[in-house]
Design brief:
- The chain is mostly helical.
- It folds into 4 domains: 1-77 and 256-358, 3-Layer(aba) Sandwich (Rossmann fold); 94-208, Glutamyl-tRNA Synthetase, domain 3; 359-404, Orthogonal Bundle (Helicase, Ruva Protein, domain 3), CATH 1.10.8; 417-504, Arc Repressor Mutant, subunit A, CATH 1.10.10.
- Helices cover 42% and strands 10% of the residues.
- The strands form 6 sheets. It has a 3-stranded parallel beta sheet with strand order 1-2-3, with helices on one face. The protein has a 3-stranded antiparallel beta sheet with strand order 4-5-8. A two-stranded antiparallel ribbon has the order 6-7.
- Helix 1 crosses helix 10, helix 12 (361-374) crosses helix 13 (381-391) and helix 16 packs antiparallel against helix 20.
- The termini are far apart.
- The protein binds one RNA strand of 75 nucleotides through strand 7, helix 7, strand 14, helix 11 and helix 18.
Length: 505
RNA sequence: GGCCCGUUCGUCUAGGGGUUAGGACGCAUCCCUUUCACGGAUGAAACACGGGUUCGAUUCCCGUACGGGCUACCA
């Protein structure tokens, strides 16, 4: 009988959730939903020294905004496997139980080495030309642990309160083979694997132990994480094996990394591409650094998610714009690429533009109105709806609307020089003054009438340049469709602007 | 350095033993347009290299190069 599909997103609250993490969550969510399974949020806060205030809430809010909501876990209603915070689970003694089991079966041991002693060991090995110093089957023989110390001595040291860690006893030379849904079979020799710390001296488990214990206890069917975890997967296989749980372990999927748009390396939280790296604004109170979010930059969550989904995955055909439902029904790990994908800021903008165009003018207006009001501009809804209709084809982001069409709200105080030097001559003033008079006689002030009026006026007063009219009324060389724009501005305003510009020029 | 993973247009990618190697973003040109755009059409642009295997490799295998990741009592 197949296991119920259950995937978890398990970030550590050490800062804002960056878009790579969002993608990991997204892929897990898509797979879970596709198979009618569960999506769980677990908080891996086993490192107290790196805990950042507000990070947990940020993670929860980000997932909500993105529309990839867990149905179980921290912030989303506890399910049958509560608690979902590792620090709380530690209090229950869950991890220690498993560590004790490994200790009892001889697959783990106790080590008393201080960090100074570990440093010394590494230096010694480096001096002896060992390229990758590690605590392993060879080096542990020279360290202070329960394998080198007599039993009663170990007991005495523990009782004396000396801090110690529990380490995994990795065999010296053994092939470790495991299967990854995305990459296929991967083989590593255990000589490359170090004796990972399982339980830290403060009693907290490390990630290595904790995620395994929780994945088992929470009946997780698929463990999805970034490629940076691939090298530690062999350790994890060993832990499952020694716990007698190798057949119950989740299937593994290591996602390719998201790379920087220019140059090389993985995408960092600071990138010069001009686009955000975080879903929402994030302020790190430790460093005082601010990071802008996709939400605040005018992205819609659908566009953000769509773009992220296609970074390393594709449906197998040419489709690119897909709703969340379509992403769910088409998703599979088999179609996830193995190689890293460079983040493409231009295409990301394009995605948002596509989603912007799917919105009605009414919806756009609802989003734009608060942005205008923040600038102290108060206009009736109908005006803003029409404004959105005229400006949307030029915009990539909702936040650009004002900048792209500020002349709808503010009279010009300067006139595009390029256009004026090229097209304005000694006759122009007279011609456009006559046009203004014609405009004044219009009683039915709409786009079509303005257009007709402009055309017929030319037969009487002479050739008129449309772009000049544009500059005279808006100040800028480009913008929304001219007569629509003038229609919306209204007769009074247009005449006033025309008179103002003609008196200056 | 060692180990692991990877490599199709600039970027995201489809494909897969015999194809004119397909799409998208971006770019260029043209059409539409008395403004501004949208739109439409067209174009430039890729299988990292070297050996095999094969009648035939971009596709399979092995090397090399290059790129990335990991190498903590961090996740």
């Amino acid at each position: 009988m197949e296991k119920r599909v259950r995937l978890r997103f398990a970030p550590s609250p050490t800062g804002g959730l960056h878009m790579g993490g969002v993608r990991t969550a997204l892929f897990s969510y898509l797979f879970a939903k596709k198979h009618g399974g569960d999506f769980v949020l677990r908080i891996e806060d086993t490192d107290q020294t790196r805990y950042v205030n507000g990070a947990e809430e940020y993670i929860i809010n980000s997932l909500k905004w993105c529309g990839i909501e867990p149905n179980e876990g921290v912030g989303f209603g506890d399910g049958p496997y509560a608690p979902y915070r590792q620090s709380e689970r530690k209090e229950l003694g869950i991890y220690k139980k498993y560590a004790d089991q490994l200790l009892a079966s001889g697959h783990a041991y106790i080590a008393f080495d201080t960090s100074e002693e570990l440093d010394e060991m590494r230096k010694r090995l480096e001096a002896a030309k060992v390229v990758a110093p590690q605590y392993n089957a060879v080096t542990r023989q020279n360290m202070r642990n329960s394998l080198t110390l007599p039993e009663n001595e170990v007991k005495k040291l523990i009782e004396s309160g000396l801090p110690y860690v529990v380490r995994l006893k990795v065999p010296r030379n053994e092939e470790i083979r495991f299967h990854d849904i995305i990459r296929g079979w991967v083989t590593v020799n255990s000589s490359q694997v170090d004796d990972k710390v399982l339980l830290k001296s403060d009693g907290m488990p490390t990630y290595h132990l904790a995620h395994i214990v929780d994945d088992i206890e929470m009946k997780i069917s698929h463990a999805v994480r970034g490629e940076e975890w691939l090298p530690s997967a062999p350790s994890h296989i060993l832990i499952y094996r020694y716990l007698g749980l190798e057949h119950d372990m989740p299937k593994l999927a290591h996602l390719p990394l998201i790379l920087k748009p220019d140059g090389n390396g993985k995408l960092s939280k600071r990138d010069k591409s001009g686009l955000p790296m975080f879903p929402l604004d994030w302020f790190d109170e430790r460093t005082g650094e601010k990071y802008v979010g996709y939400r605040e930059s005018g992205f819609t969550p659908d566009a953000f998610i769509n773009m992220l989904a296609l970074l390393g995955w594709n449906p197998g055909d040419n489709r690119e714009i897909m709703s969340k439902e379509e992403l769910i029904s088409n998703f599979s790990f088999e179609r996830v690429n193995k190689s890293g994908a460079k983040f493409d800021p231009e295409k990301t903008k394009w995605f948002n533009q596509q989603y912007l165009r799917m919105k009605t003018d009414e919806q756009l207006a609802d989003a734009v109105i608060p942005l205008l009001e923040a600038k102290g501009i108060h206009k009736e809804k109908a005006f803003v709806v029409e404004f959105c209709r005229l400006i949307k084809e030029k915009a990539h982001f909702i936040t650009e609307f004002f900048d792209l069409g500020s002349y709808f709200f503010i009279s010009p105080n300067s006139y595009d020089e390029k256009v004026m030097t090229k097209k304005w001559n000694h006759e122009s003033k007279e011609l456009f003054t006559k046009l203004a008079v014609k405009f004044e006689s219009i009683s039915n002030w709409d786009s079509q009438t303005l257009h007709d009026c402009f055309q017929t006026a030319q037969t009487e007063i002479g050739k008129l340049d449309m772009q000049v009219l544009r500059v005279l009324t808006t100040g800028v060389a480009g913008g929304a469709q001219l007569f629509d724009l003038l229609a919306l501005l209204g007769k009074e305003e247009v005449i006033a602007r025309l008179n103002a510009s003609l008196s200056i020029l």
